[in-house]
Amino acid sequence: MAIEQVGDQAVKATWEGDLNQLKGLVTERAITGETMLLNMGPHHPSTHGVLRLLLELDGEELVTVLPDVGFLHTGIEKNIEDKTYEKGVPLTDRMDYLSPMSNNMVFCMAIEKMIGLDVPERAQTIRVVLLELSRIASHMVWLGTQALDMGAMSVFLYCFREREKILRIFEMVSGQRMMGSYFRPGGVWRDLPDGFHDAVNEFIDYFPPKVDDYEALLVKNPIWIDRTHGVGVIEPDLGLAWGVSGPSLRGSGVNWDIRKSSPYSGYETFDFDVPLGEHGDVYDRFMVRLAELRQSLSIIKQGIDRLEPTGPFRSENRKFVPPPRSALGQSMEAVIHHFKLWTQGFDAPDEEVFAAVESPRGEISCYLHGTGETRPRRVHFKTPSFMHIAAMPMIAEGHMIADLIAIIGSVDIVLGDCDR
Q1: Domain ranges of the chain
Q2: 380-400, pLDDT tens digit by residue?
Q3: What CATH number should be reported for the domain whose range is 76-315+349-382?
Q4: Contact 320, 186 (CB under 8 A)
């Protein structure tokens, strides 16, 4: 049964007080009252969004976990279908709101693939640098909230201190701290501002000792080890079967990273490793993400060293890309192009395309079906948070209810990513 149907049936049964409607979803012991049904959520703390979990408990042991999603549903995909392609970009920011540039990236890649739009090398490198900064910023929220869920408040404060520096860089680049909509079909919105290189190089020097601090605080912490070792194990074959991806899958030793397996934006030219775990538990997922912080920093440094002071930051194909603002006062043709692209948009063929990138949470992919006109017929995103919530019963059953808090944090879900 689909995760949405499970949630709907659980809501109907608990609302009407008829537990017989839960047959097949919970054990017979729950229907006869031998075990207890308990709602966890949809309050935000410890569920990392408005997620409701219907728990069947035998004492404090989890017998069944039923996820119920849909409390945050925003209709983003249908809204994009009502807009021209470029005007759909700002809506993608609101899905995984902790890594909006990943959403921008996969949508822009799908559009570029559909219409055959080139992306200059400089723009590709800018994208990589910002994607990896976004990965670090997202991992800071993950580590801070995971630690806070288990009582380590100081780590939460430290992580948000580091994230703040990255958000200031994003604001410098796009004018917004989070929802910047900076990636556009054919490249990026505008060139990098003065001071960008200095800000990023300052962060590159500042950040490594902070990762050392996180390790010193947690890696050998006996309480942390007790709460994470052997908890929420994802077996490699089951992880693949349930569609788990990203650090949650790599923590189980599965070497799958789209940046390596299907490189995009020039990732094949960067030197970096893919950290892997061995046991697939909460602790291994923690260690994989810590190692990813250092790998992302290495990629950022390589990208910054490649960026020349000037160069094209967006395609010059005026059929799809507006002319620069400086041209509007000099060329009537530029004004016409600008007017038509922003009022009508550009036509895209009646074809289907698929694009995927490695977000901080795992694989985010975009299916795009054109109409031959200016609006898409169908837009659909496959997002990691939805897959990880669906796999929650497989990961959590048999553990204690206190372990569920650590497990939810360890797969790093964002409900905006799920309830699109």
Answers
A1: 1-71+384-420, 76-315+349-382
A2: 999 999 999 999 988 988 899
A3: 1.10.645.10
A4: yes
